[in-house]
Design goal:
It is found in: Cell membrane. It is a single chain. With 936 residues, the protein is mainly beta. Among the domains are: 1-177, Ribonuclease Inhibitor (Leucine-rich repeat, LRR (right-handed beta-alpha superhelix)), CATH 3.80.10; 188-352, Leucine-rich repeat, LRR (right-handed beta-alpha superhelix), CATH 3.80.10.10; 367-443, Leucine-rich repeat, LRR (right-handed beta-alpha superhelix) (Alpha-Beta Horseshoe). It has 10 helices and 66 strands. The strands form 14 sheets. It has a 31-stranded mixed sheet, with no helix packed on it. The protein has a 6-stranded parallel sheet with strand order 25-27-29-31-33-35. Strand 65 (865-866) and strand 66 form a beta hairpin. The longest helix has 12 residues, at 5-16. It is globular and about 110 Å long. It starts with a helix and ends in a 12-residue tail after the last helix.
Length: 936
């Protein structure tokens, strides 16, 4: 029977609604995509077309299988697809429908029994019409990151799709759906997968779903918990269960011993990061049907691995970040001859004979990251280099190799190029050196390559441009020199390119033929103008070109990149005017950093209320005139840095309406007039850094604002770094210490500062400052303040730096200030203070520079007091009044050991090098951390 003509025409029209996708994400082990519709021709029988199944009696099209077919474009409600009313099976997975919505018309295909729209870029709400498909046996909407399900939709789905056997909504946002609704699912279900759905609450008793063979409730952002009784009942009643995945479910109250009651059919057990504690039952590993065991990230879980008689069917073993003692010796290896996946990152190795790994010839994935293994790969994996080559070549099936976060050194062995099946190679965060071996060009299937954070040198080999399946390439934080290879234009599937923190020179290469979405070329020596080809990358999400030698103007064509989320062109020599369209060209833009350039003119006046801007930095340009009122439209703004410009304006009181603003820096401009203070009770309630230094502001200090700085009153704050964690992008600001600009490349949420120095403020220091108990740094120097130093400053119990110098303060230094036990910098020089200097605690550490210029002060470290007065006045040998902060480097560095201000960006490199991170940043160059690999 020939295909029905109307259906043949509908299929041809359906084909014409799409273009060919340049690149589509394909999960591991899936076949290479190809265009199945290529040979659909009018005049031929559609029943014989690729991807089509017909009823051989009626000629009706009953199956459309176009998975992985390079389809690109949206599916609208008038698509000819919906005229194919006889369809029973529809598979459109692994295509790119360009962030379109699942239209209600899918609900008109009433005869559907199988619907698969996974991995296809759908967004928005699941339409209620899907629940009309009451005959569905299988529904898969998984891995569509922008897809959501409301409670009402899921409830209808549960009520209407009573014949469902398989349901997969993994990565659909179900944060509003109560886990209790799972109790009403069809008892016919054999497979339920709700991986990464953001569900929250307690997992109910779903043991009535006794036909379940596969159950996956993992990785819901830690939102799910299960009680011991519910889990025990579950493992006892699900007698057919083969695949159980509870990764990231809170099982802290569950006894691991209860797992002994689980079904004998169990073949896969995934319990990563479940907070399991205690001893894991030994006999689970010896189950005859068990093929996969994942206990990743249960840091308080231990047990003993059997020395002999392991289950020979075991294919995958992950004990990363657990307390199991690992004896990587002959007995261990001999038990794992069938192993395909081995994950032993950050483990408790008792014996680590790495050369034995070469005997696991079936390995597909090997992960031994974060174990402090050192030496060259040859000496670590084999006793002799010749033996090592044989070992590498024996791992013919290896597709994933994770060696990052170790101390491996030397050159990458060229024999690595013999691993032809490599899909994922991560050697980052080691001490590898030399050049990238040319043999890597043999890895033609490789989509993921990360060699960042090593000591590689020389030029980036142009042969990498022959790896045409590369999807992710990170070579950042090395010593590469020369230009960006022109061969990179051949990487037609490249989405992510990270070459930051090298010594690359030359001009930016052409990128117009790449589907790039992430580019970071910062901290190099690239020169020339920004090429127009970059501004044609329509899908670009991140563009970071900071800290190079770029010149010229920024074309308004940048505003065509309306998918941008991060735009950082800072610290170059760009000039001209900032395009006005930058204020509203992208609703997704969260970071706009154009600081440290030579831009002139005015700040754009087009900031839109529809935007997502969180970080706006124009610091260090030559911008003039006023601060635009439209910035108040940026309701998500957290950091605003307009310092070091020529802005001539009064204080922008309208900024107090920004509800999320945490850091406001307007220093070194020409601001003038009074800072009148708060107009509402909520003004600047989240502000933690307030810097108006070096302007011409006058009048009294803004005590009204001090009363509203709620975030500075609360020091019970979780320590986090501000930034965009999805892209490992850290927000940065700067502090000025004795004329030296210190860039805080990572900003802790604990950091609270007020700097009003270098203005013309008058009057007394308000008592309300004493309410700001979380304050770390207070600088009121170089003003015209009068009156006494307020004793209420003693309430600033976390204060580390206090500078009141170069004012007209009188009276005595309050003895109560000795209660400031964290105080490392204290400066009251050049005032009219008198009487004895307080003694004890931190005041015994300050030198004469803290007090000079006050003729009436006495006591340590000045002259001794005589009846509370100075014995004889002494003229200061040095006039340091031109220094706004006035203290030297020695006391600052001495205080870094315990202070937050001066240890503010502590992290991995602080612990590793024992140097303050600001010191590392200034003198050793800025490094951006690699993106994290998240476990699926």
């Amino acid at each position: 029977m020939l295909c029905q003509r109307d259906q043949s025409l509908a299929l041809l029209q359906f084909k014409e609604t799409f273009s060919i996708a340049k690149a589509v994400f394909v999960p591991p082990y899936y076949p290479k995509p190809y265009l199945k519709t290529r040979y659909w021709k009018e005049g031929t029988d559609c029943c014989w077309w690729d991807g089509i199944t017909c009823d051989m009696e009626t000629g009706n099209v009953i199956g459309l299988h176009l998975s992985n077919s390079l389809l690109y474009g949206p599916i609208y409600s008038n698509n000819p697809l919906f005229s194919l009313r006889h369809l029973r099976k529809l598979d459109l997975s692994l295509n790119d429908f360009n962030h379109s919505r699942i239209v209600p018309q899918f609900g008109q295909l009433f005869k559907l029994t199988h619907l698969n729209l996974s991995y296809s870029g759908f967004v928005g709400q699941i339409p209620s019409e899907i629940t009309y498909l009451s005959g569905l046996l299988s529904l898969d909407l998984s891995w569509n990151y922008g897809l959501t399900s409301e409670t009402t939709i899921f409830t209808k789905l549960v009520q209407n799709l009573t014949q469902l056997r398989e349901l997969d909504l993994s990565f659909v946002n179900m944060s509003e759906v109560a886990p209790s609704s799972l109790m009403n699912l069809s008892s016919s279900l054999t497979s339920l997968k709700l991986h990464s759905c953001e569900m929250q609450g307690k997992i109910p008793d779903i043991s009535r779903l006794s036909k379940l063979v596969s159950l996956d409730l993992s990785w819901n952002y830690g939102g799910l918990t299960i009680e011991p009784m519910v889990f025990d009942k579950l493992v006892r009643n699900l007698t057919k269960i083969r695949d159980l995945a509870f990764g990231d479910v809170n099982m802290s109250m569950v006894e691991p011993s209860s797992l002994t009651n689980i079904s004998s059919h169990l073949s896969s057990l995934r319990l990563g990061i479940c907070e399991l504690k205690g001893k894991f039952p030994d006999n689970i590993i010896q189950r005859t049907n068990l093929q996969l065991l994942d206990l990743f990230g249960n840091e308080d879980l231990n047990g003993s691995l059997p020395r002999h008689n392991w289950n020979n069917s075991l294919r995958s073993l992950s004990l990363s970040f657990t307390q199991f003692p690992i004896y990587l010796d002959y007995d261990f290896i001999s038990n794992l001859k069938s192993l395909e996946t081995l994950e032993l990152s950050s483990c408790n190795f008792r014996v680590s004979n790495l050369k034995l790994l070469g005997k696991l010839t079936r390995l597909i994935l090997l992960d031994i990251n974060s174990n402090n293994f050192n030496g060259q790969i040859p000496s670590s994996l084999g006793s002799f280099k010749r033996g090592q080559i044989q070992i590498l070549r024996s791992l013919k099936r290896l597709s994933y190799l994770y060696l990052f976060n170790n101390n491996f050194s030397g050159q990458i062995p060229s024999s690595l190029g013999s691993l032809k099946r490599l899909f994922y190679l991560d050697l980052s965060n080691n001490n590898f050196s030399g050049q990238i071996p040319s043999s890597l060009e043999s890895l033609k299937r490789l989509p993921y390559l990360d060699l960042s954070n090593n000591n590689f040198s020389g030029q980036i080999p142009s042969s990498l441009g022959s790896l045409k399946r590369l999807f992710y390439l990170h070579l950042s934080n090395n010593n590469f020199s020369g230009g960006i290879p022109s061969s990179f234009k051949n990487l037609k599937q490249l989405y992510t390119l990270g070459l930051q923190n090298n010594q690359l020179t030359g001009r930016l290469g052409p990128f117009q033929d790449n589907p790039l979405r992430y580019i970071d070329l910062s901290n190099n020596m690239l020169h020339g103008s920004i090429p127009s080809s970059i501004l044609k990358l329509a899908d670009l999400n991140v563009l970071i070109l900071s800290s190079n030698k770029l010149i010229g103007e920024v074309s308004s064509a940048v505003c065509k990149l309306n998918s941008l989320q991060i735009l950082d062109l800072s610290n170059n020599s760009l000039n001209g005017f900032i395009p006005q369209c930058l204020g509203n060209f992208s609703n997704d833009l969260s970071v706009l950093h154009l600081g440290m350039n030579n831009f002139q003119g005015t700040i754009p006046e087009t900031f839109s209320a529809r935007g997502s801007l969180r970080y706006l930095n124009f610091n260090g340009n030559q911008l003039q005139r006023r601060i635009p009122l439209s910035i108040s439209n940026c309701r998500n703004l957290e950091i605003l840095d307009l310092g070091n410009n020529n802005i001539d304006d009064s204080f922008p009181h309208f900024l107090e309406t920004l509800p999320e603003l945490q850091i406001l820096i307007l220093k070194s401009n020409k601001l003038h007039g009074f800072v009148k203070g708060s107009s509402t009770n909520y003004s600047f309630s989240k502000l933690r850094m307030f810097d108006l230094s070096d302007n011409m502001l006058s009048g009294p200090l803004p005590s009204g604002y001090f009363n509203n700085f709620k975030a500075m009153m609360n020091f019970d704050v979780k320590m986090e770094y501000m930034g965009q964690p999805n892209y490992s992008y850290d927000y940065s600001v700067s502090l000025t210490l004795k004329g030296v600009v210190i860039e805080l490349v990572r900003i802790q949420t604990l950091l609270t500062t007020i700097d009003l120095s270098g203005n013309k403020f008058t009057g007394e220091i308000p008592q309300s400052i004493g309410k700001l108990k979380a304050l770390k740094l207070l600088n009121l120097s170089h003003n015209q303040l009068t009156g006494n130093i307020q004793p209420s400053l003693r309430e600033l119990s976390n204060l580390e730096s206090l500078d009141l110098s170069s004012n007209s303060l009188v009276g005595r230094i309050p003895m109560q200030l000795t209660d400031l036990t964290f105080l490392q910098v204290f400066r009251v020089s050049d005032n009219r203070l008198e009487g004895p200097i307080p003694e004890g605690k931190q005041f015994n550490t300050f030198d004469t520079s803290s007090y000079e210029g006050n003729l009436g002060l006495c006591g340590f470290p000045l002259e001794k007091c005589n009846n509370g007065e100075r014995q004889k006045p002494e003229i200061s040998k040095e006039d340091d009044s031109n220094s706004k902060f006035g203290f030297g480097w020695q006391p600052v560095v001495a205080g870094y050991g315990c202070g937050v201000i001066f240890g503010i960006a502590m992290g991995y490199r602080v612990f590793k090098t024992r140097k303050p991170i600001w010191f590392v940043r200034i003198f050793e160059g800025r490094r951006r951390p690699k993106p994290k690999r998240f476990k699926n």
